[in-house]
Amino acid sequence: MMQMIYSDAAGGFAASREYLAIRLQAHEHLLARIEEVGSEFSHWDEARVQKFVAREIDRFVQLRRVPINTSEAQQIARDLLKEINGLGPLDDLMQDQDVEDILINGYQNVFISRRGVLHKQALAFSDDQHLLRIVQRVLAPLGRRLDESSPMVDARLPGGGRLNAVIPPLALDGPLVSIRKFRQEAWGMDDLVRMGSLDAAMSSLLHHAVRERCNILISGGTSSGKTSLLNAMAVFIPESERVVTIEDAAELSLHHPHVVRMESRPAGLDGQGTVSTRDLLRNSLRMRPDRIIVGEVRGAEVLEMLQAMNTGHDGSMATIHASSPRECLYRLEMLAGFAGFAGSELSLRRQMVSALDFIVQIGRLPNGKRRLLSITEVVGMVDDTVALQELYRHESQGGQVDSWHSLGVPPQTPKLAAWKAGNAARGMADGGGWPL
Q: Which parts of the sequence belong to the Bacterial type II secretion system protein E domain (predicted)?
């Protein structure tokens, strides 16, 4: 059973066949010693396991008279410790706070995302079985399965993050593994402003929109920063309110004292026991929520979400995959159609207009930077079309300099009437107009 070449062992003798052969023999020796120790080994703490591995590798080198130096022996011990007690080659990447995504396209191709930009990683698993062993080790404590009868899995990681895996025969070129990591400490709105994701004026508008219970959809593509923005905006929810979050795979990390978290459940081994996001949303209405936050709208739950926003749960928020505010509305219509909406297209649009106040569009630029692209208000109906008014728009000069421009139109929702009046008064006092 060959092991992988870790990035910190790449190059020189550490990447040679001789090194791999020695490490294979050392691994076999270590497994034999673990069998001798028996079940007691599983109860050892990390420090004791580390000492055991180091001692056994030294013993192996001396007994076999292996021609390696102390540094190389220590490297073998570190590699085997990760293989036995951790996630093998994924250990270092999972610990690296700058790594956002780990994408494995078959055992030989590993890519990581840092600051929105993909980089090929200088490491590879030894074979597909090695990769699958590591994935199974991640899934084991989660009670999820990955085999020929269930060749796809989507699971939440205990330390935060999400794992998706697809194996043959669905994956043609070997196992496909995607790991999305999440920060232990979510970004705040001030952090996003400092990093240049939006400006202070937009932050102020979002602050008051959340505080005054506006219903908001955050729209964007994959890995555009929707969840991070939703986490940051949720900080503005008053502490006196009860917030219910509903997700397919729990990703939200809200800094709020009263959050009730729920997560959907896939079918069990017998195909039974599914609990959908729609089921959870229906049940949440009986849990006395002040606000409902849906991690991502992607199915039939869209109808319950719109109804909740229309029936006393103002201030609710959700994310959705769409490339523009108008496309966001089209996607809502499509999902409602798939959910079996029985009314007319016009009645659905009127319900959307009544439910939604703002659509916040976020995107990832070609250089990997995540930027708020626009804040758009849902203002009403014109004939049979939903009328949108863009309030702020992102512009980039040469792909390097970001700027946001107000369209000079204040928000029309009565929920922000007091804030708008205060802004207008301060603007006139300064000789200017909307916005400050």
A: 86-361
CATH code assigned to 189-429: 3.40.50.300
Report which of residues 51 and 318 the model is more confident about. Answer: 318
For residue 224, the surrounding DSSP H or E stretch is none
> What's the mean pLDDT in 281-296?
93
- Domain spans in the chain, listed from the N-terminal domain onward: 1-85, 87-181, 189-429
pLDDT digits (tens, 9 = 90+) for 93-107: 888 888 889 999 998
CA-wise closest residue to 306 among 275, 329, 276: 329
- pLDDT tens for each residue of 165-191: 999 999 998 999 999 887 767 789 999
> How far is Cα 23 from Cα 359, in angstroms, rounded to an integer?
55
| Per-residue exposure over 250-279, b if at least 16 CB sit within 10 Å of its own CB, e if not | bbbbbebeebeebbbebeeeeeeeeeebbb
Is the pTM for the entire model greater than 0.90? Answer: no
- Among the CATH numbers 1.10.10.10, 3.30.450.370, 3.10.450.120, 3.40.50.300, which is that of 87-181? 3.30.450.370
Amino acid at site 233? M
